[in-house]
Amino acid sequence: MFHFHFWRFGEWVDVVIDDRLPTVNNKLIYCHSNETNELWCALVEKAYSKLYGCYEALDGGNTADALVDFTGGVSEPIDLSEGHFATDAERRNDLFERVLKVHNRGGLISCSIKATSASDMEARLACGLVKGHGTL
């Protein structure tokens, strides 16, 4: 039995799960590590899916919302396409300073690339990032 705590609607919620994880041909279906005996990420995912009702409810989620649920902290989403960061060097520098301050204080920073269509979802870019997925 495993206990996980998630921050939901202003309070910590205890979620209890067992160690039965969804597999096909003895391999984890969803979240998994490169190490075969490392199961913590699959267990966290199972507890989080239980909190939301099912695994399918996690599909297309928001990284910032998940970080709030995991930590009880506060998130500040920044949409780079709306901030004129590509054309305004001063705004870019201000953003860099803000991100650096968060980093220096030990804050969690994530990013994602929006998928603009269903066919664009899961597209792997040359740099290794995948559209529609968040990265910490």
Automatic annotation (TrEMBL):
PROSITE patterns: CALPAIN_CAT. Gene3D superfamilies: Cysteine proteinases (3.90.70.10). It comes from the Eukaryota. GO terms for biological process: proteolysis. InterPro entries: Calpain_cysteine_protease, Papain-like_cys_pep_sf, Peptidase_C2_calpain_cat. Transmembrane segments: none annotated. GO terms for cellular component: cytoplasm. GO terms for molecular function: calcium-dependent cysteine-type endopeptidase activity. The active site is at H133. Residues 1-136 form the Calpain catalytic domain. Belongs to the peptidase C2 family. PANTHER family: CALPAIN, CALPAIN-5. This is Calpain catalytic domain-containing protein.
